[in-house]
Design a protein that fits this description.
The structure is a single chain. The chain is of the alpha/beta class and 250 residues long. Helices cover 33% and strands 17% of the residues. The strands form two sheets. The chain has a seven-stranded parallel beta sheet. Strands 4-8-7 form a three-stranded antiparallel beta sheet, with helices on one face. Bound molecules: 2-phosphoglycolic acid (PGA).
Length: 250
């Protein structure tokens, strides 16, 4: 793992955007695996600026998102499809037809999951998979559990995730209780993984990811088995990793 420690959220976002833009410049028709949440918002803003300035083009890029809340329509302002349109796709020159997010409204969610795996496989998996990380170590919505789930699946969100995401809704009661998420297999099949994190709330999760045992209790710890992982965090999120003596790039 290569770990970059940046001084704050802005610097983390710029570093992440530069790594993503480099991938698109290297391979204009690359497949980007994308993530939602508050962490990637700054990186997406940077990519929009780079695109506007003509430094990078998404015309041939295909994207696959990690997850979607079960039951939310794409037009719901807390759906991840809405988030992606609003935070990235509407601000770059990507063809909307080349963007994929699991459908939260599929009548048969299991069939939707199976179809999503087929789609990701047909695209040849992600060249670069962007990941945030939950306070509890989740990636996508792969929550702490007694085993890893390989395929895209319907997951019951943990109380910790519901509490963490309540800030985006009127109240915790409004947070959907289930989501569709790409599984660990789809994530690990990406050729390169870029995990970003900021704030002290992520310090334990990052410590467990980098220094802890590989266990489904901290789903992100599986990344220790991937040969091409870059972590970009701010000083607050990487505090415990650095204190443990793990070398980081500044
Ligand atoms: P956040 O979520 O970026 O809103 O902190 C990250 C995640 O849950 O994966």
């Amino acid at each position: 793992m290569r770990i970059y420690c940046e001084k704050d959220y802005d610097a983390m976002s710029r570093r992440a955007a530069n790594i993503m833009a480099a991938e698109v410049i290297r391979k204009p028709d690359c497949v980007l695996g994308l993530a939602t949440g508050s962490t990637p918002v700054g990186a997406y803003k940077q990519l929009a600026v780079m695109c506007r300035q003509g430094d990078v083009s998404f015309k041939e890029v295909r994207t696959v998102n990690l997850d979607e809340y079960k039951g939310l329509a794409p037009t719901h302002d807390q759906s991840y499809r809405y988030f992606m349109n609003n935070n990235l796709f509407n601000h770059v020159d990507i063809d909307p037809a080349n963007t994929s997010v699991p459908s939260g409204l599929a009548e048969d969610a299991e069939a939707e999951c199976a179809a999503y795996d087929k789609l990701v496989e047909s695209l040849g998996y992600a060249d670069l998979q962007l990941l945030g990380i939950g306070n509890n170590g989740h990636i996508g919505f792969n929550e702490p559990d007694s085993s890893f789930t390989k395929e895209t699946h319907v997951v019951d969100l943990t109380e910790s995730t519901i509490a963490a995401n309540a800030r985006f809704f009127e109240s915790a009661n409004e947070v959907p209780r289930q989501a569709l998420t790409m599984g660990i297999g789809g994530i690990m099949a990406a050729r390169k993984i870029l995990l970003i994190a900021n704030g002290t709330g992520k310090a334990d999760a990052l410590y467990n990811t980098v220094c802890g045992p590989i266990t489904p209790e901290c789903p992100a710890s599986i990344l220790q088995l991937h040969g091409n992982v870059v972590i970009v965090g701010d000083e607050a999120s990487l505090g415990k990793v650095i204190a443990a003596g793990v070398p980081v790039c500044k």
